[in-house]
Design goal:
This protein is of the alpha/beta class. The chain is about 30% helix and about 30% strand. The strands form two sheets. A five-stranded mixed β-sheet has the order 3-2-1-4-5, sandwiched between helices. Strands 8-7-6-9 form a four-stranded mixed β-sheet.
Length: about 210
Amino acid sequence: MTPYGLALHTTSPQLGIALSDFDQVARSRSWELGRELSTYLHELIQGFLPPQGWWDLEFIAVAKGPGSFTGTRFGVATARTLAQQLNLPLFAISTLAAIVDHQGQTYPDQFHHDSLIAVQLPARRQQYFVAIYQITDSGLTAYLADTIMTQPDWQATLEQLSHSYQVIDGSQVPLGETATSLLNLAYQQWQQGERPSFAQAKPFYGQHPV
């Protein structure tokens, strides 16, 4: 049975929702909601899902952060509730990993096997959310797990790499549009036999909101 997956991306003011059966059906949409994201999220999910229904879903994916503290918290909480009520696996996917996958899908000739892809996203207090991913046969592998650094520390980290790398500026990527990449990455894990419980989905904030 080909699974339907549903993805929610709420870590920025742009809400992204995607649904696919990874064969013939693939739909996605994003909305600029700003601070009203939490107000309209449930309504927009209900409007987006048809003609599929909740019974068609085999798993849910959600962006776990980093990103907006409030948006991330609300999105993960919503996804956990849905996964628990529907008894579905829930894949909590890094915002930064989704950015890398999105760029790879958009520019397929830009990245090559074993490439190191460094990705950065502005955070508060003159810091950056950063990570380094490597393209492998099994998909994206974390070479440097998501963390937070100052710009000088990040630059020093990159300069110490012995492998060639490319840098993606996540601030130039519409995050809501990367919901399709949340699905892609979750589906890769699904195919590898992973079935994470809703209880395993934890947000990654990176910074205290204050």
